[in-house]
Amino acid sequence: MEATERCVRVLCPKRKLLPRSKDESTVLQWLIGSPLFLPPLTVISSFRCLHFLDNGDPDLQKEADDIRTLLLRGFDIVGALYLGTGAWEEKAGKAVEFSWQLRKYISKEETYNMLGATFDFNSGDILFASKIAKSKKIEAFSCVIYEDTADEYLWEKGCLLRCEMAFKLPVYVPVDKTSDFKEVFSLSTIAAATKLKDTHVAYLVEGTNVYSKEEPHSIVLHGADLDFSASACDRKAFNNVTESNEKDLACSVFCSKSKFISSSSSKENADAIQITVLSNKSRSNSESGAPRTQYLPASDPARFFIVNFKLDVLCYASKDFPVAAAISRLVVPGLTDQIVSMEKVFVQKLSSEHQLCPYHFLPPGLLHPVTAIYDLKYGEAEVAQAEIRKTLHERLGLPLDRPLLRVANSLAFGVKDITETKLKSKLLIDVHTEIPSSGVSGGNLSLIDGSYEYYHYLLDGFDDSGWGCAYRSLQTIISWFRLQYYTSIGVPSHREIQQALVEIGDKEPAFVGSREWIGAIELSFVLDKLLGVSCKIMNVRSGSELPEKCRELAMHFATQGTPIMIGGGVLAYTLLGVDYNETSGDCAFLILDPHYTGGDDLKKIVNGGWCGWKKAVDSKGRNFFLKDKFYNLLLPQRPNMV
């Protein structure tokens, strides 16, 4: 085998595989790859193991149930990273054994080598090794490549397929045998899943081409045209296609010509081949005749249930893969997996009405989407749903203090969804990214963490010049919470802000519709009422003392990352960051000025200094912050939530 073929290629950042601390001495991570479409020694991402037995080994049945729902078909377990005691050979061997067994639980496949990885706390290196399933010899890899262009590697030759399907499943259970519901329901779901392979079922395949003026390609494939017998991991079974007929057409025929998706743009750009399941029961009928009914009386009184299934499956395939094979090997098994996963939820609480809905996410740091099934009967704020999201954050190695897997974070597909998503953000976003450096020599840069919209005077034709700067700063702050998905409420208007202050008793009713100023205290009241966000207030006796607060402000941006409102005299600004040299005391403040009255021209805003670095005293001796005015700074606290 060539040397290049014996290299382990890691697409995810190395830090995603590293333990968060030395205390994580027994952690286990499952390595994710795509052996059907990528070289077997390719690691795309990792999932943390959360279920363990009393002896410390992973609970493979529970892990398989969770990962079967979370992981898209087209991706699979290719190994494990094991942190434990003992020699590296022993740890790597355990990792290989655990991952091999888990893969059998998930997909019943065991036809290729698995990776075993261990971490050396002394050197900080990750050692990769492998062995053939029935061999005891561990072989270490000396060549490990961490890809710099992982998005391109994964998506330039790959695509997504999506299938939505809803149906009602009737279930009859004898009144005197309600305990048999689980068995009866299980048989009903198996029958429903089996029908997906019926010759009378048709699959409509449509290319979306959201960003292309070309007409999307579409075909209909029938169950009789699909091969459900070939092994899902056997790529050779699908290599001898000629595209001489529709069932041999490659996925590339239906793919959008737009660039591959990435974690930074996927929510707006997510694109997938659409698969629609149709029933064509009349296709094989050669004789015409009148409809017939058959009377089948029940032998005993029965209780009747209707269970609503709403399926939404996302799969990954290479663009050269036949779309017919993608349906039979990926889409249909994915639908079956989702039916089984939902069945387990339904049977747990027979008396409850569930609203199970699958959603797809691509959180920061993850190269491929994942799927979660939420029960939205009681809304996202319900305690059980919050615990589910927290568990998903832990499995994916995501921070536990910010919402990344809420419904609002889910991927948008199709022209309608993408258009609506883009219309939501018609304002300028993150204008500070285009400004030059601060000019502070040797300073430590501290900036907000996340995106915001720029609200300023006269925006949307509303004249608030001379009195609305604090309102605009508040709108910018609330936009930050919206864009980080801490809230789904709209950014409030001036009148709505005033109404909120009246409702909490801070202002009289006549305040609504007035042009009265508000300050940091009022902003904190509004954030608490509308968003449930708490704030700290920093009082500064004079503008000349603000540089003394730079260390504290830098700590805020490092720990909270939210925009700050600075109010002094009759002026209010939004602070986006500080650049501070602790040794010299030199510092600069990144100011977003709401007093701008022009159009949303980014170049004009930056060149005019409406967003830029400001020093307390500039090179000409002018004070940006007034010496004879006191200042109140509003420091919103990031909610600790998922």
TrEMBL record:
<comment type="similarity">
    <text>Belongs to the peptidase C78 family.</text>
</comment>
<feature type="domain" description="UFSP2 second">
    <location>
        <begin position="268"/>
        <end position="413"/>
    </location>
</feature>
<keyword id="KW-0788">Thiol protease</keyword>
<dbReference type="Pfam" id="PF07910">
    <property type="entry name" value="Peptidase_C78"/>
</dbReference>
<dbReference type="GO" id="GO:0006508">
    <property type="term" value="P:proteolysis"/>
</dbReference>
<keyword id="KW-0645">Protease</keyword>
<dbReference type="Pfam" id="PF20908">
    <property type="entry name" value="UfSP2_N"/>
</dbReference>
<protein>
    <recommendedName>
        <fullName>Probable Ufm1-specific protease</fullName>
    </recommendedName>
</protein>
<dbReference type="InterPro" id="IPR012462">
    <property type="entry name" value="UFSP1/2_DUB_cat"/>
</dbReference>
<dbReference type="GO" id="GO:0071567">
    <property type="term" value="F:deUFMylase activity"/>
</dbReference>
<keyword id="KW-0378">Hydrolase</keyword>
<feature type="domain" description="UFSP1/2/DUB catalytic">
    <location>
        <begin position="445"/>
        <end position="634"/>
    </location>
</feature>
<dbReference type="InterPro" id="IPR038765">
    <property type="entry name" value="Papain-like_cys_pep_sf"/>
</dbReference>
<dbReference type="InterPro" id="IPR049387">
    <property type="entry name" value="UFSP2-like_2nd"/>
</dbReference>
<keyword id="KW-0833">Ubl conjugation pathway</keyword>
